[in-house]
Amino acid sequence: MFSRIDHIGVAVEELEPALELYRDRLALGVAHREVIEAQGVEAVLLDVGENHVELLAPLGSQTPVGKFLARHGPGLHHVAYQVQDIDATLGVLRGAGLELIDAEPRAGIRGSRVAFMHPRATGGVLTEIVQPADHPGDG
User: Fold this and answer.
1) What DSSP letter does each residue of 1-34 carry, written as one string?
2) pLDDT truncated to tens, each residue of the chain (139 aa)?
3) Is 0.85 surpassed by the pTM of this model?
C-alpha cells in the first residue's frame, strides 16, 4: 500500500531560522517552497536522497500547525507515506477500521493529493498519505 516514506513534517515557528539549520548547517538542498492557504502553512521541502524533510510554518495561530505549535512546540509533526492511488488507499484504510481525519483527499504541496490519518489510529503519530501529482491514480 505504501511505496516509500515521502517526507517527514517538522513544525517550526518561522521558516528562516529553520532554513539556517536545515539548508545552511545541515546542507540539505531546497527542493520547493510554497504557501498552501487551504492548510494554513508555508512549507519548504528539503532533499534528503529521494525523500524530503518538510518544514511547516503556520500562517496564523488558529491554523492546525499553529495550534500544534501552541500545544507541543516546534518539532516532529507528521510522517508521510507515498502511495500510487490515494483513493484506493483511503478505501483500504477505511476498510481496516482506521480513523481518518480526511475522508477525501485534499490539495497538498506541488499539486499532490494528500489525506491524514488520526494519531489515535497510528500509535500517536500523525500520518499523511501522499499521491504525488505525477501519479494520477484512478480518481
Assistant:
1) ---EEEEEEEE-S-HHHHHIIIIIIS-PPEEEEE
2) 999 999 999 999 999 999 999 999 999 999 999 999 999 999 999 999 999 999 999 999 999 999 999 999 999 999 999 999 999 999 999 999 999 999 999 999 999 999 999 999 999 999 999 999 985 443 3
3) yes
